[in-house]
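User: Okay, second chain of the day. Same drill as before: sequence in, structure tokens out.
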Amino acid sequence: MPRVSAAIITHNRANYLADAIASVLAQTVTDVELIVVDDGSTDETADVVAPYLDRIRYVRQERRGKAAARNAAVELARGELIAFCDSDDIWYPDRLERQLAALEQHPNVGMVHGHVDFVSSDGHAMLDRTSAMRALFGAAHRPQATYASYAFDCRCMSSTILVPRSVFDVVGPYDCELPIEDYDFYLRLVLEYDVLFLDGPALAQYRVHDEKTTDYELGTGQIQTAEKHLAMLDARSDIPDSRRARRNFHLMIAQTSRVLGDRRRARTAALRALALGEPRGLRLAR
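Assistant: Same drill. Structure tokens below.
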């Protein structure tokens, strides 16, 4: 039984996939299995994977989306811990070593994650963007991330998360009904567990390219997730700091709707947020 199950989910990323696989296999920690879930690729993905078949587990499935692919990887995992690497990203060699050391000191957290370095499609460093995002990610986790703070400002990169397998038994799988799968999962996780953010050197490289999720897809997915959780807040009375969480979801909907150009929805959500808290600006998100 490996200590860590590393999972790469992929769909038509043959041009980047080999780098992702190589980065996982190059970890300084050796007690790792690598699972590649191919979500219905129609490019040369199988050819890219072929040279690694003696060192990885490769599973193909019909196109079902990112959430279903992540869930398949979790079901296949044999390790005590699960770590994802998106198929267009790259882990640094000590990614798992550093996280396992942190987990030894904080054994009860539900997730360990950290910073990324932004790089272009051809691997060139994007220093200004990295610096800006480091500031945002650091601020989002000071002093401690909560459900209410993640409602407005959820800063997690899937290629850096390390999650105990048992956490999925408690919070459930990724929601296949949502257009983006990770925001909802992190919200459900932080509702049940503390989250440990490593505010030090980056754990991975995040590749920026034209085939990434579009701003429209990301925005509409965030809004649908917020609406799901607002309904959950209506149905449950046991969620800590629920008023602040509700306000922050409305703030997030307002901000995202404004970016998407939906001024009416942005105004409605902003007014609902103001009704739940003092109008002192977005600092209220925490």
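The chain has two domains: 4-212, 216-285.

User: Thanks, on to the next one.
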